[in-house]
Every structure is written in C-alpha cells, then in structure tokens.
Amino acid sequence: MKAFDRWVLSGPFTTRDLGVYRIVFGIAALALLPNAQFLSSYPESFFNPPPGPFRLLDALPPLGVLVALELALALALALVVFGVVTRVASIAAGLLMIVLFGLSYSFGKIDHTIFLPLVALLVVWAGWGSAYSIDSSVSDAARPPRQWPMRLLALLIGVGFATAAAPKVLGGWLRPGTQATEGHYWYELLIDGRDAAFAPLFGNITTPVFWEPLDWITILLEGGILLSVINWRAFRILISFAAVFHVGVLVMMNILFTTNVVAYAAFVPWGLAVAWLRDRGVRAPHLSPRAWIVMASVGVPLLALCAWLLSISLPLEVENGIKLTIIIVGGLVGAAYLVSQAVALVRWISRTRADDRPSGRREVGV
Amino acid sequence: MRIALRLIFALAILLLPAQLLFQRQFDQPYPGVFQPSFAGTPLTGDILKAQIPVVHVEFDDGASEEIPFEDVLPDSKLLDKSVFKSAFFLEDRATAPDTVKWLRGDLARMFPGREPVGMTVDWTDRRIDITGATETTDEITKTVVIDLTEGAR
C-alpha cells in the first residue's frame, strides 16, 4: 500500500507549471465558452436529457436563466485567468461547465467534453492558484504543489478513453476483415457531410493495408492511456500521441476534439517555457500587489464580458477556426515532445552500447 | 488523508466497469467520464450502411414535397441528425402537442402562402456502394406520420 501511496503522491509538477496552465486553461475555456441560448429555439418537447441529474428537470430553463449561467461561467473563468479567489472560481467554473454542457446534451447527443470541467474541478486542488495569480501576490503562504490531483486527472482521462476502447473491441474493430475506421470515415463523409478540406482525398485509399492498422492503433492508443497512467513519462508520451491523433481525425474526418487537447495541456511542463522566455529577457511587468488588484478588478469583468459577447456573436466558421488552431497547436506540441523522447531514446541506446563495449578492446588498444 | 485518497482512486478505477455496465444496461449517462466510442463497423465489404430520415411535407391541396430534414430544425450548434432522431424517431415524441404546434409555425414560415397539413418521416436504411458513391439503395424501415391539422392533438 505504501507503493500505491508513493505513486499517488509523486509527480513532476511545480507551482509555476500549474500557474501558467491555469492561465492557458482559463483563456482556452473562455475561447470555447459554451453557448446555450440557442437551445430555447427548440420546442419544449425536444428536451430529452440522458440518464442522470438532468432528468430531474421537466423542461429547459428559461432564456434568462441560460444567459445568467453563460455570464456566470464567463465571470468564473475570468477570475481563474487572473487567479482571484481561485479555488471558489475554479469549482464554480467546473460545475457551470457541467450544467451548460448538460443542457446542450439534453437534445439527443452527448458531446464528450467532460475532461474540461474535470480539469477545473481537480487541478485547483494541486495548487494552480499558487503562482502567477492575484491570490499568490497578496498571500505569503507558499505551499508546495499537490501531485495527487494530477494523477487522478490522468487516471480519469485513462478511464474515459478506455470507455471508448472497450466497445470498439467488442464491436469487431480488431477483426482483420473489418475496416472500422474506413467505415466511419465514409459515414462522416457521405452521411454527416464532413467533406471539407483534405477529407475527400482519403476516399482514394482503398487498401486495407492503410485502414486496418488504423483500427488497431486507435484501440492501442485508447486502451494504452489507462495503462500508461502508472508512469508519468509513459502517460505524457501517450497523450502526445493522442494530441497528434486528434490532428489526424481532424484532417481525415473534420471532427474537432478541442476540449481534450486543452486537458492534455495540464501535463505540459509550462515552467520550462517560462524559464526559457526569462532567459531571453521576456518577463512579466513588475507591479505591486495593489496594482495587480486594480488591474484584475478592471480586467476580470472586461474579459468575461468580451468572451461572452464573442461566444454569442462569432460565426460558426470562426469558432471552428479557434478550435482548429487549438488542435493543431496541441498536435505540434505533442509531436515535438515525441521527437524529443525519440532523440533521448536514441542517445540512451548509443550511450548504453558505448558503455557495453568490451573494455578489453580498449586495453588491447592501450 | 491517505485513506481518503486511496478511496478516491479506488472509486476512479471502479468507475470504468460501473460506467460500461450502466451504459450497456440503460444508456450513456451525463455527467460521465466517457469518450466517443464509434462502436460498430458501418462498412460491410464496399457497402456503407446508414439510417437516414427522409422528410415529406403534405399540403392541403394534396401536394407533397420532400425537404432535407435539417431544414426542419432551427440553426444550432448541435448535430442536426441526433436532434432530429431524438425528436422524430418515436411516434409519441414526434406527435407531442408542443412539437406539432412548433412544426406548424416552422413549416408555415418555410412555405408562405401554403397550408401544411402533415409531415411524414420515413426512417430509411440507405446502402451506398463506396466504389461509386452515387450507387445507393434505400429501404424504409419505419414511418412516422405527424398530423398538423387543427384537430390534431
């Protein structure tokens, strides 16, 4: 049991990593702010929540309540960005996201955005408000970061992906005669009309030699994430593969797994990026705590209002452009990490082989 | 603290079988820690199978017009096919008074000057030969009829 405790409590995350990620998360979540007002254009009889607490509702809440929920979420996320009453704001943001997503998913389709609220509800306990925040500028108490919330988030991401892997295995994805990925590709292209950009090009590929390995790779990735939670490096490698995989799904099927990429970013060593910038003379302006508070008191409502206005007014194409950018950036970061790990592996192998060379040969030479 | 953490992690691990069992027995719950399964294999040989709704609007002059099912729904950020299936696959839901009232207004706006008296949804199994995507065969497996006349519920 001690080994288990050590595993739960160990991790590489610093307060700087978490502090920067809090800002990245808050801005990304504001850019993806869920909009629920359009739901009121459906008749009440369309309201059909999935099993769960939303079944307690008889009908969609009135438009005024939907707007209030949207504004409350925008405000909570803006507070998260500035790190003001971070713990309360983060929990409120997580719960409001669950509610707003849940209302949207009460019309026949659950989108799988659950990692986003999970981040807000878990990483806050790691101490993401302890650096680069108004809270930390007015408090002297420096606490070391807790690692268990990050391990729990990783585990839940693994559980989420395993729920996708299991039905695929049971549904015949691993049978060599069934090219499930190809089938879903054609379904998205011809039935759901996802035929933008590069997607039609894949229709020219008919050989199972291309499609069948994709079925296996998908299941290995989705099942492997849960197993990789045992080791931080393994988990980072697998979620980097996942980030690259989402770019592939975007290019092939025009499906946007944006919220996942924002969640994977929790495991990026952001502190290194800050150190890299600092070495090059890029620093945050040095302001007194009072000045930061004044800045936040203006910035929080302004940021919340701007994000909310954009969420209700931006055309769908622009929204999709934001999502696409997040996925591509995530894919590039994932690919860079995979390359760095591959280089480290090659170096390690070369070093090991050099060390293993018989010392006798050197002696002969000598 | 350690015991509480052990308990939390044990619950997180047990969440996987619990969720899969719940989903198999009932439906996917929300909130839940799920990712999209894309289960099944919609392609058999070179034939893609899909269920699609084919919608006809009937008018008081006896005419009938086929319309894309997406046109029935308001512009939204949700996937139209899922919303449409949730609302119009089961007869009870499709003919709910609120839906009928809303459809009357919706179709009247779509067809100004004409009087829609009914809407028929043919749930159709479409088979598409992907080697030549224009080759399709349709088989209606279920028909939902919605009476839009004033006497309808």
Describe this entry's structure for a reader.
Chain A: Residues 15-266 form the HTTM domain. Chain A: This is HTTM domain-containing protein. Chain A: InterPro entries: HTTM_dom. The complex is a heterodimer of chains A (366) and B (153). In chain A, 68% of the residues lie in helices and 0% in strands. Chain A has 366 residues and is mainly alpha-helical. Chain A has 2 domains: 1-145 and 283-313, no CATH class; 147-269 and 314-358, no CATH class. Chain A starts with a helix and ends with a helix. With 153 residues, chain B is α+β, with helices and mostly antiparallel strands. Chain B folds into 2 domains: 1-39, no CATH class; 43-147, no CATH class. In chain B, strands 1, 2, 3, 4 and 5 form a 5-stranded antiparallel beta sheet that branches. The radius of gyration of chain B is 21 Å and the shape is extended. The model of chain B has no long low-confidence stretch (mean pLDDT 91). Chains A and B meet through helix 1, helix 4, helix 7 and helix 8 of A and helix 1, strand 2, helix 3 and helix 5 of B.
Task: For the structure shown, list the relevant keywords.
heterodimer, A: 366 residues, mainly alpha, 2 domains, 15 helices, globular, B: 153 residues, alpha+beta, 5-stranded antiparallel sheet, 5 helices, 5 strands, 29% strand, membrane (chain A), transmembrane helix (chain A), HTTM_dom (chain A), transmembrane (chain A), HTTM domain-containing protein (chain A)
Please sum up the structure shown:
The complex is a heterodimer of chains A (366) and B (153). With 366 residues, chain A is mainly α. In chain A, 68% of the residues lie in helices and 0% in strands.
